[in-house]
Amino acid sequence: MSQPALDAAVEAARAAGQVAMKYYRGGFEVMLKPDDTPVTQADREAERAIVELLGRAFPDYGVLGEEFGGAGRRDICWIIDPIDGTKNFVRRIPVWATLIALEEHGEITVGVIHNPVTGDLFSARRGGGAFLNGERIHVSDATDLGRSFLVHAGLGTVRRAGRWNEFLRLSDATERQRGFGDYLGYALVAEGKADLYAELDLKPWDLAPCKLIVEEAGGRFTDWDGRPTIYTGTALATNGRLHDAALERLRP
To answer: Which domains can be identified in the chain, with CATH numbers?
Structure first.
């Protein structure tokens, strides 16, 4: 079943990308949501395009989207972030993407990440491997935390979440640290270009396809407490080999 769902998700992500690029190249108004994060017409229009396409292909499935919330059944549900990285989008930094995943009975079975600026499309279905632009991708084979490359999504978030000491322990244990943020951290881990990515202050739509793509590339994805979930607001993605050592450093 998951191949038709994956095909539909890819088509929807590309359609959303076309909508978003129109604004990215042109102009848009930025509004603030109640949680103080920015939203643009591009976010809303792109989500509508996705929901419409997926609704035609799979009318029985529910939807959980960043901009318009949930509708329909929750046991089989599309999880959608029309523009992951809106702050980058607003500043014309080309690190943003459309994220679409299908969750069936608590398990992510399909995942797509599409950056329309670069044209990169990451895709995976459960048990079928992870791909970038049709080419199979794999996590790194690093086994030494002391020689590893850690990606994070910004230090202020860690500080505000009260997890500074744990994060610092992990950071000190690694060789190299860079802040790229958003979907890109998971992409770098899945491609084997980075070894670990630690992020917090998250919603399920920030994570749904990323979890599957990392896992299907041979890596491991949990929250900071070691639970394989997208619903607790924290995320640790690694090449798998370094995961337990990283979790140990992240323990409060």
So the answer is: 2-128 (3.30.540.10), 145-250 (3.40.190.80)
